[in-house]
Amino acid sequence: MSLLDALFRGGHLRTLDHALAQSLRRLDPSTPDAVLAAAALASLAVSKGHAGLQLDRARDLLDGDDPAIAWPDAGDWQRQLAASRWVAAPVDPVQPSDTQAPLVLEGAHGAPDLLYLRRYREYERALALGLQRIGVHAPDAVGLDVLAPLFAQLFPQVPGKDRQALAAATALRHNLVLITGGPGTGKTTTIARLLVLLAAQALQDHKPAPRIALAAPTGRAAERMADSVRNALQSLTAAGIAPELLAQLPTTGTTLHRLLGTLPDSPRFRHHADHPLPFDVVVVDEASMIDLPLMAKLVDAVADGAKLVLLGDPDQLPSVEAGDVLSGILRAVGNGERITAEDATALQPLLNRHPREQSRHPREGGDPASLLPNHREEGNPDIPRNAATPTFPARRIHLQRGWRQDESLHLAPLATAVREGNSDTALSLLRSGTLSNVHFHEALADPLQTHRDQLLAHWQSLAEAATPAQALALAGRLRILTAVREGPQGARTLNARIEELLAGPSRRGSRPASNKHFHGQLLIVTENSYRHRLFNGDIGICQRDANGALMAWFPGDQPDAPRAFHPAALPAHDSAFAMTVHKAQGSEFDTVWLLLPARSNRVLSRELVYTGITRARRELHVAGSAEVLRDALARHASRWSGLGRRLGSETVRWDPALQPTMEGGGG
Ligand SMILES: Nc1ncnc2c1ncn2[C@@H]1O[C@H](COP(=O)(O)OP(=O)(O)OP(=O)(O)O)[C@@H](O)[C@H]1O
Question: Where is this region: Disordered (predicted)?
Answer without folding.
Answer: 349-389
